[in-house]
Amino acid sequence: MSAPATTITAVTPEGPEVEAAPAKRQRLRFVANPKATTGLVVLALFCLIAVIGPWIAPYDPSARSSDLLQPPSAQHWFGTTHLGQDIFSQVLVGTRGVMFVGLLAGIVATALSVLIGVSSGFLGGAADEALSALSNVFLVIPALPLIIIVASTIPGAGDLMIALVIGLTSWAWGARVLRAQTLSLRRRDYVEAARATGESTWRIITVEILPNLTAIIASGFVGTVIFAVMSEITLAFIGISTISEWNWGTILFWAQSQQALAQGAWWWFVPAGLAIAVLGTALSLVNFGIDEFVSPRLRSSGHTRVKTKDGRTVRMKVGFTPVLTTHDKTAPVTPVVRVDEAKGTV
Questions:
Q1: CB–CB of 16/309 below 8 Å?
Q2: Main site of residence (predicted)?
Q3: Per-residue pLDDT tens for 272-286?
């Protein structure tokens, strides 16, 4: 006796039968991410201000006037200092130093971490031991105290020197991460195939290894930029770096030294603080966008949609498992019998 055929379909908790819609190929997925787009737009705006800030500043940031400690107005958008200096002009001019130090330190640290980390993981042997020892040495060097010592001992240490010191002392952690990832990639089938066809070592590294490390490299670059920006602002705030060059930390230094908070001059420190917060948020959004671009689970969580047969759209949830059910009502139903062995009952 043969059992009647049944139809098995996937059912979601929110509706009946579901048919998976064909997946659409997305182009420029990273730029299409709202987080990454927002972060890149804000970051591009800061870079633009860093370039043209001194040209569009309405006043000389160091020029004094008779408008002493004035709140924001149509003449002075962010108010003035105790010497009548325009704070809006100081913020615009100070953006260049912050972005210069952050981007230059990020480029130097990322280049060193890629060069040393990937070379160490791929070459192996004595080269790996030597480069790993070098990474371990720089890994335990405290970057901020070293920057303070260099900036205080070298007279007139400007943004270039600070950026180089930050970049030369911030590459070790990224190099360790890249070395670990390279060790896992060096024995992959496509790398072995390239090696078997006689490809040179550097071509294998640049063509086969580095494209698979792009997300880690980008994430390390963003983290280094954040650290460099905060280090530059910290040095200016505590008065270690030169206070003759304007940046956001210099504005906070003068606001703190002149007790702006006690005088109720909130406009003296709030704009620079907001600029720091917005820049840090933009860099973090770019980092989140990179993570979602790399991880399929983060990229598709809560965004996968399917259509039911009745035309409704259902959003798939993270961790959802389809349920299999039968829809042939003529099929015989087999009763489920449970036996309680302890009591001896059915």
A1: yes
A2: membrane
A3: 999 999 998 998 888
Number of separate helices (H) and strands (E) present in the chain: 13, 5
Cα(3)–Cα(5) distance, integer angstroms: 6
Do 331 and 3 form a contact (C-beta atoms < 8 A)? yes
Q: Please, what are the domains in the chain? A: 29-300 (1.10.3720.10)
- Return the SS3 of 335: coil
**Parallel/antiparallel/unpaired status of strands 305-308 and 323-326:** unpaired
Provide CB contacts within 8 A for 284, sequence distance 6+: 39, 226
Consecutive H or E run containing 10: strand 8-11
Could you tell me where the DSSP H helices lie in 154-295?
Answer: 159-169, 172-185, 189-196, 201-203, 214-237, 248-257, 270-294
Cβ contacts of 105 within 8 Å, gap of 6 or more: 163, 164, 166, 167, 170, 224, 225, 227, 228
E strand or H helix at 305, and its extent?
strand 305-308
For residue range 71-108, what is the model confidence (pLDDT) as tens digits? 888 888 888 888 888 899 999 998 988 899 899 999 99
Q: How far apart are CA 334 and CA 156, in angstroms?
A: 88
Give me Rg for the CA atoms of the chain.
Answer: 30
Q: pLDDT band at 205, cuts 50/70/90?
A: confident
Bridge-partner residues for 345, per DSSP?
340
Instruction: Tell me which of 84-88, 246-250, 289-293, 323-327 is least confident.
Output: 323-327
Across all residues in the chain, what is the average pLDDT?
77
The answer to whether 236 touches 94, Cβ cutoff 8 Å, is: no
**Do residues 304 and 294 lie in contact, with contact meaning Cβ atoms separated by under 8 Å?**
no
The pLDDT of residue 41: 92
Quote the CA–CA distance of 256 and 320 in Å, as a whole number. Answer: 53
- 323-326 and 8-11: which strand pairing? antiparallel
pTM greater than 0.90: no
Selected residue with higher pLDDT from 227 and 311: 227
